[in-house]
Write a structure and sequence with these properties.
Mean pLDDT: 97
Largest sheet: 5 strands, mixed
Distance between the termini: 29 Å
CATH architecture: 4-Layer Sandwich
Number of domains: 1
Strand order of the largest sheet: 1-2-3-4-5
CATH class: Alpha Beta
CATH topology: Metallo-beta-lactamase, Chain A
Number of helices: 7
Strand content: 15-25%
Bound molecules: zinc ion
Low-confidence stretches: none
CATH superfamily: Ribonuclease Z/Hydroxyacylglutathione hydrolase-like
Order of helices and strands: EEHEHHEHEEEEEEEHHEH
Shape: globular
Number of strands: 12
């Protein structure tokens, strides 16, 4: 996301993508000044350590709950369903800031989006209501809540920690009436609101 002082990067894909991410920022002609993660899965956080090594000034933001996973503490907390955690990655990098729902990071407001992982977060751009929602949904061959298997791309659902919680979060994100929905997997969905309503009704 572009801000007056540079780019806020949300998620870093698999390990090995740091060069491609830096090239993409260079093509946009703006520096990466903030890096935020939606959740602690390897295909979202994998390139963070390498990327931060080349961007020592960048602010690094993790959701507070996911920060525990990212430093290697996989314990579930009281009140969290005792389901299996999958594909979690441990990082060397420690965040310069831990985010809670309601926090602002530049133009982005943080929302809770648990279920896919216990502490996934989403980011709503307050300028145009674009929502960046990690793996709350997938948008490959249609829009699916991650609680429901997308037959063309089942992996995010198979890696989901607690499907009922994921569906409840998708419903809550839908109530924000985003203009546009950007996800970890699939195309950007625009307009987003009606597609999110039908995906959550199926989900
Ligand atoms: Zn994921």
């Amino acid at each position: 996301m572009a801000e007056p002082d540079g780019l806020t990067l949300i998620d870093t894909t698999f390990i090995g993508a740091s060069g491609a991410i830096r090239d993409a920022a260079q093509a946009l002609g703006m520096p990466i000044v903030r890096i935020c993660l939606t959740h602690a899965h390897s295909d979202h956080a994998g390139s963070l350590d390498k990327l931060v090594a080349g961007l020592p000034e960048a602010e690094v933001c993790f959701g507070a709950r996911e920060a525990r996973f990212l430093r290697g503490d996989r314990a579930l907390l009281d009140g969290e369903p005792k389901k299996m955690l999958k594909a979690m990655v441990k990082l060397r990098t420690r965040p310069s800031r831990e985010l809670l729902p309601g926090d602002r990071i530049g133009s982005l407001e943080v929302f809770a989006a648990p279920g896919h992982t216990p502490g996934q977060i989403a980011f709503l751009d307050t300028r145009d209501r674009s929502l960046i929602a990690g793996d709350s949904f997938t948008a490959i061959a249609g829009l699916y809540v991650t609680s429901q298997i997308n037959p063309r791309f089942p992996f995010p659902t198979l890696a989901t920690w607690d499907r009922p919680t994921a569906l409840a979060s998708a419903v809550a994100l839908t109530s924000l009436k985003p203009s546009r929905l950007a996800l970890g997997h699939g195309r950007v969905v625009e307009p987003a609101a009606a597609a999110m309503v039908s995906a959550t009704a199926r989900g």
